[in-house]
Design brief:
Two copies of one chain form a homodimer. Chain A is an alpha+beta fold. Chain A is built from twelve helices and ten strands.
DNA sequence: GACTGGCACTCGAAATCCAGGAGTGCCAAC
DNA sequence: GTTGGCACTCCTGGATTTCGAGTGCCAGTC
C-alpha cells in the first residue's frame, strides 16, 4: 500500500512542516526536496497518504499537514535519533559537573534540557523508593518539637517535623538517633518500613508512644508518594508555539502548575536509554492533545531512578529533541552513578 | 491644580479601566459612577488630568487610560488597601497550617498567593543570614566524599558535597562533627563565619588542610548569595493578560526563568507590613515596563526574613491585590514565628 | 501502468472599502 | 464653573474583492 516513495513523501512533509509550520503543498515539496518526480505524482501520493490517515488538510485547497498518526510513523520508521555534536556533549557534561548537591543537579538539568531542546523541560526528582538510607538525624528544635532528617544514597534530603505532647529528654534523642542509624543505614527504603516496625519494642514502655510516633513519621517520609516532586523550566519557550494562545499555551501553562499532571505526563520511569514519545492525543491528559511528550528514565544502568523529558508542540523536531533528551539523561545518570 | 473632583474622576477612570480593560470615555464614566456632573464637565477635567500626565489616550477620539503616574497617584492617595473577608482569612491560615516543612510552607504560600490574587506569585526562600545554626551534620558518603548538612533555626536545610584528595578516617569525621556543633550551634549565621575561622587550629597539623576545606565549604553555604532562591507559581494567570502576547506575556515568562531577575524585582526585604508597589517603568527590569510588582517582606515582627509578592499587568486591581499580599505575608510570618 | 502537463475550481488570507459610533474639543449659553 | 450642542476624528467591525497557492482530474506520453 505504501511504497518507499510515499514514505519519502511523508518524511518530506513532516520535515517541511516542522521547519515552516505551514501546510505544505506538492509544488513547494518537490522544489525543496529532490524527490525526482513531478508535483502531480506527489499529489497522487498525498491523496493516498491522506486516505491512510497520515496527513490531512486544514481546509480544501490548502497544503497538507501530518496527523498524529503521521508523526507516529515518522518517529517509528522514518527517522533516526540525532546524536549531538562533540561540542554540545562537552557543554552538557561541564555544565552538569558544576552542581553542588542533588537539588542543584535537578535544577541544572531542567535548565539545560530546556535550553538545548528549546522546549518546556520537566525533571522528576529521584524517587526515594529505590535508593537506600545513608543517615538519619534527629535534632531537638524545642523540647516538644523534633526535626527528623533523612539522607539517602542519592544525596536527597527529606525532613519532617514531629510535634510531641510532652518534653523529650536529650538522652532519649541520642538513643533514638543511634538506634535508628544502626538499624536503618544501608537499608533500601523499600525495606525500611518493615525493619522499622520492631524498633519501638527495644525501648522502655514509657517512651514507646513517642518512638512509635517517630517511626510513623519516618515511614511516611519513606513511602510518601505525594512527595514525588518535579522541576520545570523553559516556560518561556512556549512563546514559540505559534499564535493560537488560548488553545496551545494556556493548557500547557496550567498543566505545569500541577505536579500530579506532570508526573502522569512523564509516565512510568522507563529503563534508561529507552525513549518514550507520546504524540498529541496519545497523551494521558486530554487538554494537551496538541502537544507531544518526549521522556526517558534516568538513574543507574539497570534501573531508572526517575524520569525526565520535555513537552512541546506536536510539530517539533523529533530527531533532534529525542537526541537531546537521551543525551541529557545519559549524562545525569552518569553523574549520579559516580556519587 | 487638582481639586477633589478631578481626583474623583481619576479614581473612577482607574477603577473602570481595571474592570473593563478598555479606554473609558466621559459618557460611560458618568453613567457608571454617579459623579453628579455632566459628561462635558468630566471632559474638561480629563483634559486637565491629561495635561498633568495622569491619563492618556491611545489615539485621538478614544477614551482615556491611566498612565503609570496615574496609577501611582491612585495607590498613594486615592485608594485604601482592601482587607480580606473572614472566610478568606480562615482559608489562608488553614491552608498554610497543613505544611510539613519549610519547603512546603514556601510552596503552599506561592500557590495560595497565585490563587487569591490571580496573578503570578513569587516567594523568596527565607535567607540564611538572619537565622541561626540549629545543627551541623557530617556524613561519609564514600571515603573521599563527605556530605555536609546544615540545619537552621527556620527549618531550612542546606547541603554541600565535599570531595577530598585522600581518604578520611571515620574518627576524624566524628571529631569534626562534635567540634562544629559545639562551636556553631546557636550562632547566628552572620557571625558563624568569624567563629569558624579558628576551628582548624584546634586540629593536628596533618588534618588541617581537610578541616579548612570543610570550613571553607561551610562558610560558602552560610554566605552564598547565589543560593538565594525563589519559588514561582500561577504562570497560567498570564493568560488573562490580554492578547498582546509578544509584548506582555513573553517578557514575564522569560523573567520568571531567571532567579536573579526575580530577586531584583522583589527588591530588598522591607520591614514586614510595609508594601512595596512598583508600577510599570518603576521596575528595575526594563523589559517589564508594562507590569507592576506588589511585594512585602515577611518574617519576624521586627525584621524581614525574605520577600514575597506578585507581578501582574499595570492595570491590576491594586486595593485587592495589596490586601491579599499583605494578608498572606502576615500569616506566613505568624507561622514561621511559631516554629 | 505509472508518470506528467494542463486546466478548471476551491477557498482562505490579505487588501480594500464603507458605514457606525464612541469619543473628543470647542464654543456659546446659562 | 458648568452644560448642551455640534462638527470632527478615527477606530472597529462587517462586507466585498482580489489574489494565489493548492487541489483533483483527465488526457497524453513513455
Amino acid at each position: 500500500m505504501l511504497d518507499d516513495r510515499k514514505l519519502d513523501v511523508l518524511r518530506a512533509i513532516v520535515e517541511d512542516y516542522v521547519a515552516t509550520h505551514e501546510p505544505v503543498g506538492s509544488k513547494t515539496l518537490v522544489d525543496r526536496h529532490n524527490l525526482g518526480v513531478s508535483p502531480a505524482t506527489v499529489r497522487n501520493d498525498m491523496a493516498a497518504l491522506e486516505d491512510e490517515g497520515y496527513i490531512t488538510q486544514p481546509h480544501t485547497s490548502a497544503g497538507r499537514i501530518p496527523t498524529d498518526a503521521g508523526y507516529r510513523l515518522f518517529v517509528d520508521r522514518l527517522s533516526t535519533v540525532k546524536t549531538l555534536s562533540a561540542a554540545e556533549k562537552k557543554a552538557i557534561s561541564s555544565f552538569l559537573a558544576g552542581a553542588v548537591d542533588l537539588d542543584d543537579v535537578v535544577r541544572r538539568t531542567v535548565r539545560l534540557l530546556a535550553q538545548i531542546t528549546r522546549q518546556v523541560a520537566i525533571v522528576q526528582y529521584p524517587t526515594l523508593a529505590r535508593s537506600s538510607v545513608r543517615h538519619v538525624e534527629v535534632v531537638t528544635m524545642t523540647p516538644r518539637r523534633l526535626l527528623l532528617v533523612l539522607i539517602t544514597s542519592t544525596g536527597r534530603v527529606e525532613q519532617r517535623i514531629l510535634e510531641t505532647t510532652e518534653d523529650v529528654a536529650e538522652q532519649l534523642v541520642g538513643d533514638l538517633r543511634s538506634r535508628l542509624n544502626t538499624t536503618l543505614t544501608g537499608q533500601r527504603l523499600a525495606d525500611a518500613t518493615t525493619v522499622l516496625a520492631g524498633v519501638p519494642d527495644a525501648f522502655p514502655p514509657a517512651d514507646r508512644s513517642l518512638v512509635s510516633a517517630m517511626v510513623t513519621t519516618l515511614i511516611e517520609a519513606f513511602t510518601d508518594e505525594g512527595e514525588q516532586r518535579v522541576a520545570v523550566g523553559g516556560a518561556a519557550n512556549l512563546t514559540r508555539y505559534g499564535d493560537d494562545f488560548e488553545r496551545n499555551v494556556k493548557p500547557v501553562l496550567e498543566a505545569l502548575e500541577e505536579q500530579v499532571i506532570l508526573l502522569k505526563l512523564l509516565g512510568e520511569a522507563t529503563y534508561p536509554q529507552t525513549l518514550t514519545v507520546r504524540i498529541g492525543h496519545e497523551n494521558p491528559y486530554e487538554e494537551l492533545a496538541t502537544t507531544s511528550v518526549v521522556a526517558t528514565g534516568y538513574g543507574s544502568k539497570s534501573e531508572a531512578l526517575a524520569t525526565l523529558g520535555i513537552v512541546g508542540p506536536t510539530h517539533m523536531d523529533y530527531p533532534s529533541t529525542m537526541g537531546a533528551v537521551r543525551a541529557v539523561a545519559r549524562y545525569v545518570s552518569q553523574l549520579l552513578a559516580d556519587s
